[in-house]
Amino acid sequence: MTFPLNVxxxxxxxxxxxxxxxxxxxxxxxxxxxxxxxxxxYDTSYVNVNLxxxxxSGRLYAxxxxxxxxxxxxxxxxxxxxxxxxxxxxxxxxxxxxxxxxLVINTLTGKMEKVVKIKNPYLAVVNPNGKKLFVLEEAxxxxxxxxxxxxxxxxxxxxxxxxxxxxxNSVSDKVYFFQTGSIAGTILDGETGVQVSSFYSSYYSDGKxxxxxxxxxxxxxxxxxxxATNTVLGxxxxxxxxxxxxxxxxxxxxxxxxxxxxSATDQVVANFGSTLAGKENFExxxxxxxxxxxxxxxxxxxxxxxxxxxxxxxxxxLPSTGVSQAFFNDSNKKTLVFRMFLGYSTIGGVCxxxxxxTRGIIGGDAAEVALRVDTHxxxxxxxxxxxxxxxxxxxxxxxxxxxxxxxxxxxxxxxLAAAKYVGPDGTAATWYDETASGALTNAEGTETVIPLFAxxxxxxxxxxxxxxxxxxxxxxRLDEVKLxxxxxxxxxxxSLQQLDEAGAPVLKPIKDATVSFRVSGIxxxxxxxxxxxxxxxxxxxxxTATGGAADASGNSTAAxxxxxxxxxxxxxxxxxxxxxxxxxxxxxxxTIDRTPPAMGIKGHTIMGTLEAGARVTxxxxxxxxxxxxxxxxxxTWHCTVxxxxxxxxxxxxxxxxxxxxxxxxxxxxxxx
Amino acid sequence: xxxxxEVSGGRRPVRLxxxxxxxxxxxxxxxxxxxxxxxxxxxxxxxxxxxNNESTTATPTxxxxxxxxxxxxxxxxxxxxxxxxxxxxxxxxxxSSTAQAINPTTNRVYTVGDQTVSVLDASTNETIxxxxxxxxxxxxxxxxxxxxxxxxxxxxIWxxxxxxxEYLKTIPLTDPITGSIYNSDAEKVYLTHENxxxxxxxxxxxxxxxxxxxxxxxxxxxxxxxxxxxxVLNDHxxxxxxxxxxxxxxxxxxxxxASTSKLVNATVNATGxxxxxxxxxxxxxxxxxxxxxxxxxxxxxx
Lengths: 672, 302
Fold this sequence. Notes:
CATH class of the largest domain in chain B: Mainly Beta
Largest sheet of chain A: 6 strands, antiparallel
Oligomer: heterodimer
Number of strands of chain B: 23
Shape of chain B: globular
Structural class of chain A: mainly beta
Strand content of chain B: 35-45%
CATH architecture of the largest domain in chain A: Sandwich
CATH superfamily of the largest domain in chain B: YVTN repeat-like/Quinoprotein amine dehydrogenase
CATH topology of the largest domain in chain B: Methylamine Dehydrogenase, Chain H
CATH topology of the largest domain in chain A: Jelly Rolls
Order of helices and strands of chain B: EEEEEEEEEEEEEEEEEEEEEEE
């Protein structure tokens, strides 16, 4: 029998809405004349549908339906974001929630991506590659197998009984389902879903199973199942939903703190965290194999422990109460913590637990972000700079979010890779952080400047910044980072000097064995480097001489023995072998000349007298050049012989008179 | 800020900066404050492992997109079986306070679930959170002025601050609640009881301030902001209570006392001139000024 029950008024459109019990409809009445305008049918399982009308949004809310009060049509249904349990894919990127239907939630975006029409699913088991989902249905005696690439139900398998826990055996590719109130279990083929075997136990399951592939065993409710034979081995002194180590037979149970259990011997090998506050409430333990860390979560805190010693490395508050799962993703060094709501369902969120480690930095989807600066390129050749601050801006941080930096520098890329990131105290233990407390709450867009105390002028050629973004369910967003450098100025040309061995400025060519190159006005701690090249040879930027440490007068000098020749040179300041300023070239000239000057005697003029009518002949071997004999008067003559070689040069002089008499002699001429 | 070193004759140091826009859409390398700026050999990169860096120098790098848009969200999943529940009241009555309630100021819709109330952002139709309840409430009432939620079941009211979604206090009553009414002018909450009384809660302190005797088997009602009166639905008539003094100032007879049709729900129009009250199979339209029904709409039995 139908009858009206609930009534509400729409002040926006002056209409009355009346819900009809059992009628699955709403009557719309025009309040201006009190006549029926329309009937809105809808399909609901609720008998008594309450009505709430919002003039603000122009919507009528009737059970799960949202109705546009302008058109009186159903425009949406409320999403029922409620869940009995959740599981995640192997990467932690997808969350499968057992709600009224199976909800697929992307944990990277926090958005629900898909609804798989399996009514009231009870639990789900994900296979190792994440492509198949075995969903135990509401009655718990059917399994729907879902292809997670298409989210299609590829098959539906009847089970022999009702089950309450399931786990995947990656060794045999089987799915094990357990009962909680009885002693039976069933095993399905992981590919086909067909039941292939069953097992029986005299013990009860607690609904929390863990599989250790190294030993092919399942532990559930304090007892062990050998999956090779599917026989129950007996009880073990651990309970709870443990986490199997992928690199050993160990299982970490959130039991009495953290109990480390060796599945090879079925013995407890260690116990950690039993003295921690809240240890009795540890819900899950995540394991970071590469980092050898355990992340144990309880209602309010995450504890990061050394997996070997159990030492507490870090603690992080968690944003809301209740935890159902914690999963360490080695690929991005994030720990995915699924938060429970009222200890019953979950929220998805990423909580970074790795930012205190030397690696593994989160920030949005990119786990690590680095800025590397080759300061040599920036500063025009200089590597001597003062990296004095980081300047960065970000969106307003939420409580628990944190942005921090560390820096490192080195002269080479290889050195950079080996260098440690350091914070303000020069060690890796600290971070550059405005407050060091993680409580940055500057208004959006505020620019924050952090002095780089540990850098200063010790910085090498390369500097690299490490950024750590700590999320609190939602990653902070860093908008911009600036590294501010002050390059140390190169020496002025006026401060460059060249000195001879007597200490006098060299202003002309010198023959000294050594020349002193000097830069004056150098601060204590610095020294000069020089590049001296023959004139005309390009500078390479490589130092060829190094001055001593600056003396009391601020002079750094290098005495350099140079061969003869003309030179050009430049100088720069250096703090160490890898940190220097840009070069400054000496504006003057430098000439080294140790060669004595030549006398230039290249020829002789021979002269003599003769009787009238006589003639003179001068002969010499090449390359001597004999000029023609000249007769200034009838009885005198002279002749020039040039191009003399150094040393003795022989010349033959012959005189003949008109009668034909000859006189000759050999002259030796010296060349120099 | 650390002082800048200067050497060799006081030449001003060159101040340079390298910057990366990490999250914006355009990559840039920025140098600031430099009169002698040179091309920056700056390289940003993502590093898979900071202790084993790949070469990232030598050539200026193209933008490395950092997809912060894919930062994880915080989807909340509430307890299983979110449902409506408006059946706590006698004879399947509910009142203007229903298992769904709206605060038009914040544009949030609150719906009862299992030991929770879900919070829907009406602008996006997305559930944005859940409020844990001490018990599963049978009805909700919202103070739009103080943004408080009154969740009730049996003879108990739990008060929550909707600004923080935190529990504030419990108001214990001696009689089971059959309906609730909110007086936004005087910030009062009225709770009707089967025994013919109505508790008046002072919303400023959330304590019982008075108890008023109304009619037979009252079950909620409606507050009329136009005349500042509370109209309490009794079985067959409506008690008119002054919103300020809590005194009965009149009665509207709706049907005969022998009728099997009883008043169960009501609302008032924007001007306060008409009250629409569900009574059996009828929707009674009541003239507030005349204090009598003027017409009715009847649903045929289905």
